[in-house]
Fold this protein.
Amino acid sequence: MIKFLLKGLMRDRSRSLFPVLTVFIGVFLAVFFYSFMNGVLEDMVRSTAHYQTGHLRIMTQAYAKEANQNPNDLAFIGVAKLLDVLNEKYPELIWTPRIKFGGLLDIPDEEGETKTQGPVSGMALDLFSSSSVEVRLLKVKEAIMRGRMPKEAGEILIADEFAKKLQVSPGDTATLISSTMYGSMAMTNYKIAGTVQFGVSAMDRGTIFADISDIQVALDMPDTAGEILGFFPDDIYHEKQAPMVAAAFNQEFKDSDNPFSPQMGTLPEESGLTDYLGLIDSMSIIIIVIFVLAMSIVLWNAGLMGSLRRYGEIGVRMAIGEARGHIYKTLILESVSIGIFGSVLGTLAGVAVSYLMQMYGLNFGFLFKNSALMISSVYRAQVTVGSFVIGFAPGIISTVLGTAIAGIGIYKRQTSQLFKELEV
Amino acid sequence: MVEGKLIQTEKLVKIYPMGSSQITALDQVNLVFQAAEFAGLVGPSGSGKTTLLNIIGSLDAPTSGSVEVLGGKIENLSHREAAALRNRSIGFIFQTYNLLPVYTAYENVEFPLLLLKIPAPQRKKMAMDALDWVGLADRAGSRPSQLSGGESQRVAIARAIVKKPELVLADEPTANLDAKNSHHIMKTMVHLNESLQTTFIFATHDEKVMRYLKRKISLDDGRVEKDEIIKPEVGK
């Protein structure tokens, strides 16, 4: 019987091709948007962790209150000791100090007079050591557009776009005008080793990268850092483990009465992503529910049209002696076959296109020219295990639901009218 | 084949509500059909032919009175039991053939056997035999769209008789056919009636059909006006 029904299904394109195409398109869109949202969210989380907060961040309480202003006068002194403690107590994480700073970057001409000048935000991190976790996480080497990695003290990297704006090239000199942690003016000359592009508009607009030892000297911050970041080795934020580490650390080291005692925060807390991610999660659920409902209505309509078109066939089958329940079951079986087939095709196509977008991405940088968010300019999808299963729920549920509703008409049909109807 | 009495109606009444009034489609119909009859319900439109066929075929239930088909009371059957009776013992032939368009002639004929869960080898033999009875074994692989009206109706007959039912109900089977095809169809049914001892009951007002009937029951306004055993004008 199943073979017989499938044969009919294959031959009647309006029962197979059109519904399969509908399911295919719906599932394809579901898979693609799911992967796309995954990619964007994952990228946002990763970028925020890499450039702003790490998976865990330690600052003094005073620094934390004004962290968005990079208040280096409130930075943590005695970094080496704290790093030793962290490495001993929490060896499962990689700990690295950073200094964020602001100032002016002055580009002198051949006579030492200002040629160009612009406000700059800087990030000091470990660039020199061969085992630098920062270079690996931020993919600094891969981000170099021109020139090379800094090799020795006094060499920095500059954002490529910023370099072009300041008309400066690798090998040129740039003067950083800033302030020390004690409030004095700091002026230091650096040699530009190379230019970089991270694909994050907020950073590519006007950032320099220097080794932390150089900046500690320039800003008079020996053994001092604005923040110490902790990263899980697999570069994935572990939402259960991180809060436990933070809580244990704060219980031991945080002193509410001492504004310079350290406090540790997790990525969602530090970045304010908690509510945002919650909102996106809720939105995703709402979008999927709306999608399932919309698909159900479309497929219900398709099912109704199919049932109307098959009115004669169903009538004959009832007259021949097929029970209503059996006809209903066969319609559901057909819809399950169509749902599975369309879902498999839609998932394969959705995953394939998502994978291409994961590999190559789409540059939306023009939309973020003035953005201060750590969002990548290049949007990439991310194919996960979820991408392979997300489409099956709406694909099969909608098809079966649509058919189930449309098929109720069979039960309402008066058997006694069959002769009359079948003569029409 | 069942021998003796196949169908019996007693004081059969069927009333359809029509707005605030009622229409009496059948009124005190008392009939008995024996096995292997070749009978026709004749009469003008609205005389109750199709209603009577519906009730005999367990597609409808009487308002009052009793109908016994193959030993079972139609008025007591559930939907499922009525479907089982049709599936097992009754074949239908419609005016407009009503073949399943996506299936071949063979598959259309095979379908009732699938519902009866008959094993594949036996099913194949029975379906091909039925097509052979109607002279269409060589068109087994054709779709309904590739068949003429006469051929389509012959496939419909094969579908009705493939399970060798005790009873075949045919509602205006020749209405859409020309004279030549009508005669061909009727001769086929006469042959099957005689060779398989299948009971055929027609609802018709087609003179071409009436010429083959062995019993003619005239209905008018839901009442049996005349019930006569006749000698067919034409044989097989």
User: Anything to note?
Assistant: Strands of chain B lie at 5-18, 21-34, 38-42, 64-69, 72-73, 90-93, 167-171, 199-204, 215-220, 223-229. Helices of chain B lie at 49-56, 79-89, 105-115, 120-133, 149-161, 179-196, 207-210.
